[in-house]
Write a structure and sequence with these properties.
Blueprint: E1 7-11, H1 21-30, E2 33-39, H2 60-69, E3 72-80, E4 87-89, E5 95-102
Parallel strand pairs: 1-2
Antiparallel strand pairs: 2-5, 3-4, 3-5
Amino acid sequence: MCWTGDAIVSFEVLEHMPDPCPFLRGAYDAAPLLLVSVPNESVWPHTARLFPVHQRHYRRHELEAVLNECGWQVHSWWGQEGGHSPVEPETRGRTIVVRCGRG
């Protein structure tokens, strides 16, 4: 990344990356706020047959670990139960959504 701004929004991206750390570190350098969503492995397990372009899905603690490794600190957890349902705080749904700041 070669620009700076107020926030990076990365919805449904990390699960496509074999190693999300280069992206997350670049985002850390580019903006003070990061919004991320990923499929929740605990609710929507990854299988190559159903998700051939996904590298993996994340459990909450796994996502937090990779974010922390790249310098981010989670400020709030959100979730989405279904594909067309609202994103709500502390919801254990098929999608995990986090708001992060620089650690």
